[in-house]
Design brief:
246 residues, alpha+beta, 9 strands, 21% strand, single chain, four-stranded antiparallel beta sheet
């Protein structure tokens, strides 16, 4: 695609373009930076912006003229960021900004109606613990966790501080796994095979969901073995021995 030819009459209208910026103090309009052809007899003049807080921004004034006329008119003026402009961070929706632990006392977290982690409670959730008693309990909760929601939760737990790769787990004896611990309380439903809750008040994971292959030094079977008694050598006191002649 051919670039537009720079119209010399419009390009020469620098003073007209500068004067068109009337909403600010003249001192806030800096040096003329560039002129760019936007189309036939249509160009944009760029001026440095000297307003405090707008480092790298530029005033842009677009001018034009009709064919065979030397009279240049202003189309529009606008303040635009340059390539090195100081700008505010891009807007991020609140649901994308929210992080675990952000919810405080008294806060309300609105769950979207189309949240993929949830499905209506009257549909099959593909969780045996829910589906087997669905008819007995009726509709129950308006929504239950979907298969995608459970898988996402399981992966997050497994990769977190209560999975097999946690520092406390890798430092524990290889046999000290939660699945064989007496304090391990398996979850119900589809997560039962991989997760449970720690019930050892002395364990750092007490009251938290842990993976079955997680581990720590508070395992119920990590019993202290009784050390064998040390056998002391027999000591004789020669001073108390009476010599007897045969």
């Amino acid at each position: 695609m051919r670039s537009a030819k720079l119209d010399q009459v419009c390009a020469a209208a620098v003073d007209l373009a500068r004067a068109a910026i009337t909403d600010v103090d003249a001192a806030e309009v800096g040096a003329h930076l560039d002129v760019v052809a936007e189309g036939e007899r249509l160009v944009t003049h760029y001026f440095a912006c000297e307003m405090p807080g707008y480092r790298g921004w530029r005033w842009a004034v677009t001018v034009t003229r009709v064919s065979r006329s030397k009279h240049v008119t202003v189309c529009e003026t606008v303040l635009l960021p340059g390539p090195d402009a100081l700008q505010a961070p891009g807007w991020v929706p609140w649901q994308d900004r929210l992080q675990p632990g952000d919810l405080g006392v008294g806060d309300l977290l609105l769950t979207p109606a189309d949240d993929d982690r949830l499905v209506p409670g009257y549909t099959l959730s593909e969780d045996p613990a829910v589906d087997e008693v669905a008819w007995e309990l009726g509709l129950g909760r308006p929504r239950v966790m979907s298969k995608e929601g459970r898988e996402e939760t399981a992966q997050r737990w497994y990769d977190g501080d209560h999975g097999p790769d946690a520092a406390i787990s890798t430092a524990a004896p290889s046999a000290a796994r939660c699945v064989s611990c007496g304090f391990y309380l398996p979850l119900a439903g589809a997560l039962r095979q991989a997760f449970g809750v720690c019930g050892n008040m002395f364990a750092p994971d007490d009251g938290r969901a842990v993976s079955s292959d997680h581990g720590c030094g508070a395992h119920s079977e990590a019993l202290a073995e009784n050390a064998p008694a040390e056998e002391l050598p027999t000591v004789y006191d020669d001073g108390e021995v009476e010599s007897v002649d045969d």
